[in-house]
Each structure stands twice: as C-alpha cells, then as structure tokens.
Amino acid sequence: MTFKSLKEILKLTSVVFTVITIFQLITKQSLDNEKICELLALSLSFSLIKIVINKYIISKDSIFNPLLYIIVICLMIAASNYLFNWNMSLLLMLSTFIEVILIYICVRLINYQYEKIDVKKMNEILDRNRQNKNQQ
C-alpha cells in the first residue's frame, strides 16, 4: 500500500466519520465511547470498500459506482445492526438508509472541494514550472 493510498483512505475516513457523527448529533442519538469506536470502525470500513470498488470493481466514472457503494453501505449497516446489537427497528433501518444517501451526498460535496483545492495546487505548480522553463 502506497503513501498516496493511505492518505486517501485516511482523508475519506475522517470525512465520513465527521459527517456520520454530525448526523448522529443532529438526530440526538446517544454517543458513548463504544458507539464512537463502532462508528469509526464503520467509517474506516466504508473508506476501504470505496477504494476497493474504485480500483478493482467499477471505475470512478461509472454511474454504477456510487450506486454499488450505497448498496454496500446499507448492507453493512444492516449487518452491523446484528453484529453490534444495535436493535434497530425496521422504520429506523429505513430512515438510516435515507441518512446514508444524505451522508453520501455531503461527503461527495466535501471531497469535491478537496479535489478543487488539489487541482488548484497542481495548476500553480505547473504554472511555476512553465515560468521557470521560459526564463531559462
């Protein structure tokens, strides 16, 4: 695993964890240390799955990429409900799936802003390199 992949995974994990935690606070869910650790583990899992989907299953440009990712996340939440004994009702599960879609949209918007900043930095470096090349 390269440093670039690790950086991408950690950045995505932090964004996903932050957005999930904010949604938990907005919906007035109880957040104890155990729940926060579970959410962090889920966020890391979601990030790793996203990287695997992008690299090995479906390209980033495909329309099915976000759809597959959202389906996998919903299945993971359903599995986590039983694994972590969250005891979620069917109605709560459905509302959680709607939250997943909203969280996905928020994360995409935040990542878009990060990507814009990265592109701007790369363009500045290219401009400096061109100027240095022209001066020589």
Automatic annotation (TrEMBL):
<keyword id="KW-0812">Transmembrane</keyword>
<feature type="transmembrane region" description="Helical">
    <location>
        <begin position="67"/>
        <end position="84"/>
    </location>
</feature>
<feature type="transmembrane region" description="Helical">
    <location>
        <begin position="39"/>
        <end position="58"/>
    </location>
</feature>
<feature type="transmembrane region" description="Helical">
    <location>
        <begin position="90"/>
        <end position="111"/>
    </location>
</feature>
<protein>
    <recommendedName>
        <fullName>DUF3021 domain-containing protein</fullName>
    </recommendedName>
</protein>
<keyword id="KW-0472">Membrane</keyword>
<feature type="transmembrane region" description="Helical">
    <location>
        <begin position="9"/>
        <end position="27"/>
    </location>
</feature>
<keyword id="KW-1133">Transmembrane helix</keyword>
